[in-house]
Amino acid sequence: MRRREFITLLCGVAATTPWSIAVHAQQSSGMRRILVLLSGNADDQGAKTAIAAFLQGLQQRGWTDGQNLRIELRLGAGYADNMRKHLAELATFAPDLIVAVGSSAVGQVLQATRTVPIVFVFAPDPVGSGFVNSLSRPGGNATGFMAFEYSLSAKWPELLKQIVPGMKRAAVLWDPSIPAGIGQFAVIQSVAPSLGVEVNPVNLNDVEQGIAAFARSGSGGLIVTASGLAVAQRDLIVALAAQHKLPAVYIFRSFVAAGGLISYGADFADQFRQAAGYVDRILKGEKPAELPVQAPTKYDLAINLKTAKALGLEMPATLLARADEVIE
Q1: Helix residue spans in 216-267 (DSSP H)
Q2: What's the pTM?
Q3: Domains and CATH numbers, the chain
Q4: If you average pLDDT over residues 108-133, what whole number do you get?
Q5: Which residues of 123-161 are buried (b: 16+ CB within 10 A; e: fewer)?
Q6: Burial letters 300-311, b for 16+ CB under 10 A, else e
């Protein structure tokens, strides 16, 4: 199946199966199986772009879905109920390899199997989370690509302060149940006093009430940390930020494409493109334990000027000059 046909199928099936998309191919000798777990929704442009990059990377290495490869894509992995359902299907599908996105998905997959090779994408702190023994020598059945170093989290309140110099308060949307959520929040909390900003934690399991309560006091902004729960609730979070007139900074460019104000983080599609290389090497016999975990090589700054205008904000010229993407 060609990449364009795969994306067309992804869009078409979304209407009837909102949380899972299966790509079925005629079984043949030598067919390898990959399970891909994504946190996004079926209509998430970021997810589509990432999968397109992944398929292109595989094709460049001689792997074509429907010929020598069968790919099962599962969406909505940011929710625990969906993950339990996806993991229950592992025995039936019997994948040769699993691609998991985000620390929540990776952690649950590793609880389910310590034998099937795993390539993770956008996983913060894989050592601290217990996914690997070390970055240079993972040592188990998982390896892949880090989302960022925690120090990146300091950039988000700094960006908000540049855009809204008078901001005194910031609500940090986080998932306290995962190490990555705790790590990101700790860094933001540590730099906030130097910026004159008071930090208010908002659990991603209680987004609507948390944001509404925070917004009542005024003069604040939102910082949305990286997690599967954040991605799964992208549209809701963007809508709440607009409803309560709150400037918000995100890690994923897809939030800005959906109407969010600004994002700064690693290039999601680029990580998927690189992940295809690790998938190729593992399917050809190399061990995840011996493939080093890699840090991002490309970071993107995206700005939505339409959203800025709706919020009555004038974006600094220096920030616009640095942007990789500006949505007019």
Answers
A1: 228-232, 234-243, 253-257
A2: 0.75
A3: 3-147+267-297 (3.40.50.2300), 150-265+300-327 (3.40.50.2300)
A4: 91
A5: bbbbeebebbeeeeebebbbbbbbbbebebbbbbbebbb
A6: bbbbbeebbeeb
